[in-house]
Amino acid sequence: MRISQAEEMSTIASFEGFQAVSLKQEGDDQPSETDHLSMEEEDPMPRQISRQSSVTESTLYPNPYHQPYISRKYFATRPGAIETAMEDLKGHIAETSGETIQGFWLLTKIDHWNNEKERILLVTDKTLLICKYDFIMLSCVQLQRIPLSAVYRICLGKFTFPGMSLDKRQGEGLRIYWGSPEEQSLLSRWNPWSTEVPYATFTEHPMKYTSEKFLEICKLSGFMSKLVPAIQNAHKNSTGSGRGKKLMVLTEPILIETYTGLMSFIGNRNKLGYSLARKSWINHGRP
C-alpha cells in the first residue's frame, strides 16, 4: 500500500509539533542525581561541617546520696517536721487533758513480731503517750495513752530470741510493762496488728546522730531520766489501785518471741515502719 505525498507531509508536521515533557514534578526543586554529579565535578574541594560546642552543663549538686543529704530521706529530719509534730501534740494535750508535758522523744518501737515502727513519745505528769505520726502529711494517725500509775516494771538490756528462732536483732532497748504478759491472750500474741499487748519495747531512732537536736530526743537514756521519776510520782499521787506500788527497773535481756522472722526481715530491711522517701525509682545519680 503506497502512502501519498500529502499523508507523508502531515505525519512529519505532527512530529515537528511534539515537545519533550520533563518527568520532574512541579514544585520539586531538589537537584537530581545527575545534578549532584555535576556539582561535585565543579566543586573539587570537600566541604567541612562545623559543630557548635554546647554552652550548657548538667551536674548533680549537691550529691543527694552523701551525708548530710542522705538523712533527709527520713521525713522526720526535714526542716520544721519535728517542730510541727511537737506543736500539734502540745495543742492536743492542752485541749483534752491539760496535763504538764515532761518531755518529748523520737524513738523506734519494736512490736511483738520484731517489726520496727517510728514513734513519738511524750511523758506528762500522769500519762505516757505513744504517737504514730505521719511526717509526710504532718498529722497524728494514732495515739495510745498509758497511765503512769499502771506501769510497774521497766527492763533494760540486749535483745534476745528463742533458741530455735531464725530472727535476730543487734543492740539494746527498753521494755515498759503495764500488764502481765502471762495474761495476754493467744490471739493477741500471734496477731501482728494486735493492740492488746500489755507492754511496749523501744530502741533508739536510726537518725540519732544526724544533729545535736536529734541526739537529744532520740537517746534512751534521756527518755529514762524523765520516765522513771514521772512514774514514781504517779504512784505516790495515785488514788486507785496503783497507790503504794513500787516501780521495778531491771537490767536483763529483752525477749522477742519470733521464730522465722520473714515478715520483720522484709519490713525492717525496707524501713516500712518509717516515714521515708522511697527511692526505688531514682536513677542513683546518673544524669
TrEMBL record:
Note down the stretches annotated as region Disordered: 17-62
A cellular component term from Gene Ontology for this protein is: cytoplasm
Renumbered to this chain, the Polar residues biased-composition regions fall at 49-61
- Ranges of residues in domain HSac2: 76-248
Segments forming a coiled coil: none
Question: InterPro entries, per this entry?
Answer: hSac2 (IPR034753), Inositol_phosphatase (IPR022158), TPRG1-like (IPR040242)
Q: Which domain of life is it from?
A: Eukaryota
Q: Which PANTHER family match?
A: TUMOR PROTEIN P63-REGULATED GENE 1 PROTEIN, TUMOR PROTEIN P63-REGULATED GENE 1-LIKE PROTEIN
- Similarity comment text for this entry: Belongs to the TPRG1 family.
Output this protein's name: Tumor protein p63 regulated 1
In its UniProt entry, the species of origin is given as: Pongo abelii
